[in-house]
Amino acid sequence: MTDAGGKQEGRKAGGKRRQVAALPWRGEGEALRILLVSSRETRRWVIPKGWPMKDKTNFAAAAQEAYEEAGLDGVIAETAIGEYEYLKKLKSGAARLVKVDVFPLRVTGEHDTWPEKGQRTLEWMTPVEAALVVQEPALRDLIARFAGVELPEEERPAPHLAPTPVRVAFQRLRRRVTALWGRYRR
Known about the structure:
Shape: globular
Radius of gyration: 18 Å
Distance between the termini: 54 Å
Low-confidence stretches: 1-10
Number of strands: 9
Helix content: 25-40%
């Protein structure tokens, strides 16, 4: 959450953790493109995002994430255009529901090197392509709304909901049991 000046009030709001994200774009009309980055662990298509930063407004922190994750410079909106939720896998292995405030970033430059270069794949896509490859339904709708495009019903996949923390725990347990079973069967 932010106060009137856009300063972050902390990582939790209403019991949920909050992150900030940049929605990088360039061009206009038919030439409008959205930049997506792959996540480091799951390799899903996402937008640059991260935790709020001390002594930075949320929009400035989102712009910083765009630089660190994709090497982008640009003009960022001071007001979020929306939010979406996803399950974030924490270092402990637990999953937590995180709300992400999204700030549009008009890209004006791209660096040759940046902190996370080589750790992610970057791709400029049409708004429809970008909307259809992200997994979070609310992010898909936010991209389409931002670009002013209508997603054809027949091309809209059914919402692929992120797994619940219980399902994540069961999947992890199943992988461990399968790995152990393979060791003892030899």
